[in-house]
Amino acid sequence: MRKLAIRLAVVTLSLIMLASMFGCTKQSTNNGKQKSNTGNVFRLSKPAKADSTKVLTTLIDCAPPPAFNGNPLDDTSGINWSIQPFMYGYLANYSPFPERKFKTELLEKYEFKDKVLTMTLKKGLKWSDGSQLTADDIMAHFYMNVGRSSVWTYIKSLEKVDELTVKISYVTNTPMVLNVTFNLPVATPAKIYGKWADRKKDVALNGREINAATGYYKFTTDGQKKLDEINKDVLTYKPKPEEAVCSGPYAIASVTTAEIMFKVNPNYMIKPQITKLRGLRPGSAEAFASSIMEGQYTVENGGLSPDMAKQVEAKYKDKIRKLYVPELSQIGYGFNIQKYPVSIPEVRKAISYATDRDTLLTIAEPGSFKSDWKNSGLLPSLQSNYTDKGFTDKLTDYSYNQKKAEELLKSIGWKKDSNGKWIDDKGKAVKLEIAVINSWPSFMYTGEAMSTMLKEFGFDVNFKPMDGGVIWKYLNSSDFMIGCSFLGGSSAYNTPWEAFNNIYSSSAARTGLPVLKEGEDRIMKDPVTNKEYNVTQMLLKLFNSTDDKEIKQLTEDFMTLTNDLCLYMPVIEKASCLRIYDQTLSLPEGIPDKIQKDYYYFGDINTALAKMIKDGQLYFTE
Known about the structure:
Layout: H1 2-11, E1 55-59, H2 84-87, E2 89-90, E3 92-95, E4 101-104, E5 107-113, E6 116-121, H3 135-144, E7 155-162, E8 165-170, H4 177-182, E9 185-186, H5 190-206, E10 208-210, E11 217-219, H6 221-234, E12 250-255, E13 259-264, E14 276-280, H7 285-293, E15 299-300, H8 306-315, E16 321-335, H9 345-353, H10 357-363, E17 368-370, H11 380-386, H12 402-411, E18 415-416, E19 422-423, E20 431-437, H13 441-457, E21 460-466, H14 468-475, E22 482-486, H15 496-506, E23 523-525, E24 532-534, H16 535-544, H17 548-565, E25 568-580, E26 585-586, H18 605-614, E27 619-620
Parallel strand pairs: 1-14, 20-21, 20-22
Antiparallel strand pairs: 2-9, 3-4, 5-6, 6-8, 7-8, 10-11, 12-13, 13-14, 15-25, 16-22, 16-25, 17-25, 18-19, 23-24, 26-27
Helix pairs in contact: 1-13, 3-5, 5-6, 9-12, 10-13, 15-16, 16-17
């Protein structure tokens, strides 16, 4: 009855709380062909000739005209991440599934050995204006990303070997540098951007210095000042979107406030079988939902409320196909360890025990899968690859157990009063606060339900929904107590280093960890074993290590420490629901309603679609 009451309470939340297009996505019951959850309904029989007359419509997110321009370095109003995969080629495309892989696109081959990456371009590459794409353009490409990409944290030197070959020397031998090296779209031809690339080259050579604490590069004060000036100047370049010179399969044909129409780039190395491509802006959440109901999209994975998702799937039940694309991120609740009473490890653990996360999953957005109930900091999807068999069995399991929660609180001198409310060891009533963003259902729904659970357990809980404009600032301050967070994710590198760096370094404020002074190491004590861990040095070793045994040991040490500290209570391992509305669209093989582990189904939707198009894996059947 309690679970039912929570579900009914959540349903009363307003339907206008549709998630934004980047919100958490969903999972729902199958319809029609997909009921069995087996087989492949994505790869259709390929005809002798694909149908090139149909338009593929996908979701984009960029500024509308007149602000929209053709500068790919203008993150605010230019050709941004949602468009770049279609318009630009990449040196190599990456996916961690079914195993870590970099598949060459503009490159013919590459070799990474002894901290040196040697890259050889394919012969005959051209820009969309017909000019040759050579090593000079790749040099400009990397120099234009000085100060824009973390790759220059690790690059020691950049060298043009010949017209097709570029060599990069790094300060580390970790293969993770390939992720940031190949993640950049080749978007800045030297003949256009060379004047700025030359100025940034000077900063790369003379405006950086080694950070003694890390062994990586950082910009000097003067170097950063020069970079700021150059970047400001780059943003004065605002060509028309139709004038942008591209290295990928498409260029922009026309732009309106509602959509962008793309045309095939005749100079790309292959002719895509999707010859007509349309990018549709979502507008407001309500407008986006209306566009879906009107049949505007061929494919989409935008955020919908659970109720809206059910309406969409009911309308298109005879033709919709769905699968889940892994994001390697997790959603849950961070504890501010400097804020009483969650500053006490036993209290953080008791809250975890007293929260029925299995029930939270049932009321979260579809597409929400069980995360790690052991609060170890590492996504379930990565654990088996980086730990020895049986290791996770040794960690404390914080699954729902009210008896254990009560035992923990009583062990620190707490007790319940005559009204069943918890009183601390000083005789004062215990008050908790849970802050969530009010427009993301996976946080809003689970946060309210969690508050109800903890109230029933005996806590005085202040549930605090907040607008998107203020919530993140609040959660980065010292004021919050328990707050919704994305922590421990690994969407870029897909390794334990990224997950633990996110928890202990880049997003440390979300768990109340103090800001470190320059050169200071973060030392953490395990509250169970009293063992001290130099987290800063452990992160450095984990990033740089190429030894599988050492990586496993460091990962297990981090998981043990994080499990005992209980800094973060994850609820959801997030996956994105890809909905396909056109039955004639053929995609790479996939299993309906399952999280995929395939090269093509990874990353944001347009990156995935572009990889399929470039490899001839996406087409309409006649």
